[in-house]
């Protein structure tokens, strides 16, 4: 498939569910939406950082792997991977894993409300191949080791508290984590070809020091009811995926995200997106790359390490405006959540961090047509921060409270955090 093929068919709902299975199945067979004229003007020529931006937007390099971050004394880590932004009251903190084995860990960059770098520091050390993870409702970052019998570490984005290994969450080849505050569980994916989908039920919500690890049990089909069974030995002395009869297998579990009673997760081995409906305990194949014909299929979107690149339409005046990225055969997927203010697109390869400001859906691109950070450059790569004329917009957080939207979004190796105003995506 041509690398410049665009991701299709992620249609956002209005006030109810979006990206449901029906929409995804329809995407596989229906004619794709046609792009309309965007509201921010055309993309200009690539700037000095290789980023194409609309008029009024700028980018600047904030860090390079192996070099100091801004005016701080902190050296940015290699192979930046999964990450998240945390509100800091007066600004924001971006945390980023380092997918290196050994000595992976995670780092943080602190920004003021205007996007100025005010600090950078290590929040996790002495771990192995920290790939993805997840943000908790109590504002910690779960950093997951993608190695056999790997651990989950709970870290403090502010760096004030030491990271804690969460043994009860199981030892296996972890990928991503997604917290479900309604059922008070954390969903976990496993990155092996015959991996499982897990959930961790802490004894006390907000305290991950103890609890029960469970695995999803279901038939061999791609949809239907599921049950959960306790994993007898989370320590992984016997592989966790082999301890429960009937545990459903998934071909390379990658990113997962919870929203509106649904946990979306992807599998890279078969280019699929799955949806687990937690309210009724069913699973459904939301997207299957093999069912989409050439010209309408995403460019191996599920191969992005833990973020699925979706072509997300924005409806205005009956037309759809798209934000999209180019294909890279080594990206892996994380589904974009419906009706969320922050959309993440990314590539796990090292070297590049970027950011930009709401409310625009940006298309980063290089002058050579390739992605920023496409190649394996473990020793470097620019970290541009992109700003727009829309600073200071107010939006609604996931909890429903009013909050000032960050004036930038951080990207790692083309981790694109696209922040939009509440209600911007229809």
From TrEMBL:
UniProt biased composition (Basic and acidic residues): 324-333
Biased region (Basic residues) positions are 302-323
- Segments of this protein annotated with the region Disordered: 295-360, 374-401
Q: By its UniProt entry, which InterPro entries does this protein fall under?
A: PhoX
Name of this chain's protein:
Translocation protein TolB
């Amino acid at each position: 498939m041509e690398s410049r093929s665009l991701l299709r068919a992620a249609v956002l709902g209005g006030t109810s569910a979006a990206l449901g299975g029906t929409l995804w199945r329809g995407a596989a067979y229906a004619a794709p939406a046609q792009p309309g004229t965007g509201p921010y003007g055309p993309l200009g020529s690539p700037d000095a950082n290789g980023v194409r931006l609309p008029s009024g937007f700028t980018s600047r390099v904030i860090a390079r792997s192996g070099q100091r971050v801004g005016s701080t004394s902190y050296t940015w880590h290699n192979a930046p991977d999964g990450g998240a932004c945390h509100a800091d009251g007066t600004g924001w903190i971006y945390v980023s894993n380092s997918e290196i084995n050994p000595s992976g860990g995670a780092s943080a960059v602190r920004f003021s409300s205007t996007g100025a770098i005010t600090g950078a520091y290590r929040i996790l050390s002495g771990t192995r191949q920290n790939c993805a993870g997840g943000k908790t409702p109590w504002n910690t970052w779960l950093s997951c080791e993608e190695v056999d019998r790997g651990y989950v570490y709970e870290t403090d984005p502010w760096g004030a508290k030491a990271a804690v290994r969460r043994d009860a969450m199981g030892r296996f080849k972890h990928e991503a984590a997604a917290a479900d505050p309604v059922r008070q569980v954390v969903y976990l994916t496993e990155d092996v070809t015959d991996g499982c989908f897990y959930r961790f039920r802490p004894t006390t919500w907000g305290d991950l020091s103890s609890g029960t690890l469970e695995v999803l049990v279901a038939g061999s089909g791609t949809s239907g009811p599921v049950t959960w069974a306790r994993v007898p030995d989370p320590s992984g002395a016997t592989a966790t995926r082999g301890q429960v009869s009937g545990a459903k297998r998934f071909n390379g579990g990658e990113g997962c995200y919870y929203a509106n009673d649904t946990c979306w997760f992807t599998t890279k081995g078969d280019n699929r997106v799955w949806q687990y409906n937690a309210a009724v305990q069913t699973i459904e194949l939301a997207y299957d790359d093999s069912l989409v014909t050439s010209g309408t299929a995403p460019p191996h979107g599920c191969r992005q390490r833990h973020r699925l690149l979706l072509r997300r339409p924005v409806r205005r005046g009956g037309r759809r405006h798209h934000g999209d990225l180019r294909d890279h055969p080594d990206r892996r997927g994380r589904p974009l959540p419906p009706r969320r203010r922050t959309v993440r697109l990314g590539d796990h390869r090292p070297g590049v961090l970027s950011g930009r400001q709401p409310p625009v859906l940006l298309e980063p691109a290089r002058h050579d047509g390739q992605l920023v950070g496409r190649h394996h450059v473990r020793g470097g790569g620019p970290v541009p921060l992109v700003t727009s004329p829309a600073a200071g917009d107010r939006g609604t957080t996931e909890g429903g409270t009013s909050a000032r939207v960050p004036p930038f979004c951080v990207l790692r190796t083309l981790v694109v955090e696209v922040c939009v105003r509440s209600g911007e995506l229809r």
